């Protein structure tokens, strides 16, 4: 069951989207009239995905996306855009939104977009732990023109990025959305030369009758069916890059520059990735996402170096009961019961999104996300606080010791920062 929060000040639009999504048996739909109401509901830890309008009375969608990205980094936001809001939509995509759906296409695209985002969020595989000890990886594929090959490839990339790259859940989701869009474009618009008259199915969705007839015709014609899709995936701690090339005739990418349904995939690529380049023919796209601090001189996709340093660690969280250690690879860590959390504690006394650990002025800090059983530092109940290098933090009844060196994280002196 996926919990979806609809945020829209228009009662008619809320009812429209609520009615549409509530038809899905595995969708649990909630609504909010204002951004503040939405944030209050999210603090209860029961929301998986937010669908928000861009224009609301107390806070526009852009500000809401910023708040979600800052306070709930593992909850993706999907924008609903009206005509004339293209500039705001572009800014919101840059601020951290996971996707968008034009209001004119809600009935066709909203459910599909949510399912696609949820599928990427939920993908978990047994090799995840092994991937966490990998410094770099590269995959090369030559795919037949078969839509069934796309979801497992995207899933492989998703899990590899999760184990190696230094990025949050939503950032990882946005990166893999770009890979999926590039593969769908290569298959349908490139190799099979399907025009923009038909909606292109995402993931493992079935094509509609009109598109299916064209696909069967193309796949029975060796001119189309023998074409391949070549894919290169490179994942390192601080960079993810994809190259996708089809055997089609190419296209003029300059004709797909606006926020419209025809150029939706290209728009997402250009907003979510740092570099998007097409070859002269238009049948190959190179996408690069830099993670962490990017050097100004690093303007190409470099080869994987043999002497690449180990991933930066910000400390270790040690469970006092079991002795299990969790390496802290990000400066912001979500702790909770859900699988999407960086530190998952699958017990009933831990809330879905229990608390957030974050580095401030070189010191690890903790903030309760209005959990049911709260947090403690060295046995004392707090809403937020600064953790010393040997302090014990409790999530519900589960105690962990945090081990780190403040000076290595940028702390100056021995005085702990004052939290606002």
Question: What do these coordinates show?
Answer:
It is a single chain. The chain is an alpha+beta fold and 420 residues long. It is 30% helix and 26% strand. It has 11 helices and 21 strands. It has helices at residues 11-22, 35-42, 61-71, 86-95, 106-122, 128-131, 150-164, 169-191, 209-219, 222-225, 264-272, and strands spanning 2-7, 27-32, 49-53, 77-81, 99-102, 136-144, 228-236, 239-246, 275-278, 284-290, 316-319, 325-327, 332-336, 343-344, 355-360, 363-368, 375-377, 380-382, 384-387, 392-395, 398-403. The strands form 4 sheets. It has a 6-stranded antiparallel beta sheet, with no helix packed on it. The protein has a 5-stranded parallel beta sheet with strand order 2-1-3-4-5, sandwiched between helices. A hairpin with a 2-residue loop joins β7 (228-236) and β8 (239-246). α8 runs antiparallel to α11. The two termini are 36 Å apart. Residues 256-262 and 294-311 have low confidence and may be disordered.
Question: What is the strand and helix layout of this fold?
Answer:
Blueprint: E1 2-7, H1 11-22, E2 27-32, H2 35-42, E3 49-53, H3 61-71, E4 77-81, H4 86-95, E5 99-102, H5 106-122, H6 128-131, E6 136-144, H7 150-164, H8 169-191, H9 209-219, H10 222-225, E7 228-236, E8 239-246, H11 264-272, E9 275-278, E10 284-290, E11 316-319, E12 325-327, E13 332-336, E14 343-344, E15 355-360, E16 363-368, E17 375-377, E18 380-382, E19 384-387, E20 392-395, E21 398-403
Parallel strand pairs: 1-2, 1-3, 3-4, 4-5, 13-14
Antiparallel strand pairs: 6-7, 7-8, 8-10, 9-10, 11-12, 11-21, 13-15, 15-16, 16-19, 17-18, 17-20, 20-21
Helix pairs in contact: 3-4, 7-8, 8-11
